[in-house]
Write a structure and sequence with these properties.
Helix content is 21%, strand content 30%. The chain is globular, with a radius of gyration of 19 Å. It starts with a helix and ends in a 9-residue tail after the last strand. It has 228 residues and is of the alpha+beta class.
Amino acid sequence: MLARPHERLCSAIAHVYYIRSMMERPYDFASIESLPSESFDLDGFVKGAAWSPDGSMLLTTTEDEKVVLFDVDAALVEEQMFYCASSSSSSSSSSSSSSSSSSSSSSGLRKHLTIRPGESVYDACWYPFMNKASPESCCFITSSKDHPIHLWDAHTQTQTHTSGVSSRCSYRGINRLDELDVASSLAFNLHGNKIYAGYHNVIRIFDVDTPGRDFTASSFQLAKFLRF
């Protein structure tokens, strides 16, 4: 399963310092060059996309009912400040950035993993402390039509296609008729130990370390003036 509580605490502290450093030196989006379209190599159009928390991977959901992961070129990650460089090294690297930007933009993204979680994919979400150097943290969750919430392993060294991928575990939102409900939206809490899943008029909260059908639920009703 995922890291133990004290390991998650250490990861959370490191994550806070990382976010603080990024806020002190914000990313310059103007420096991004367009990636060639062949870098994506997708059959259907993209419905959603999310960068991994460590900036090393890109998760996309497509109209043809797939989730496709891309590796970001290591040079691109370092040069484009996905990892915040220190002020001392930034001055020395600025002179070489112009010569190396062409090589990084040419490689861009490489397809890493393709899975088919089920039918139409409703939502996907990274584990908040995902770090490629820590294989157990390299995971994400998905929700798709007529399927439970699946936790997938993103730390696959070779490209794997839809037929050879299995999820780590599943979380089932069972209603009072003992039927499977499908989540339309997903999110982890800040500590990474809970999954918040949005259903029709109810939010179900799953413990990450307890797969299956155990959850707590909070029901609600929209005010009349908010109903469509």
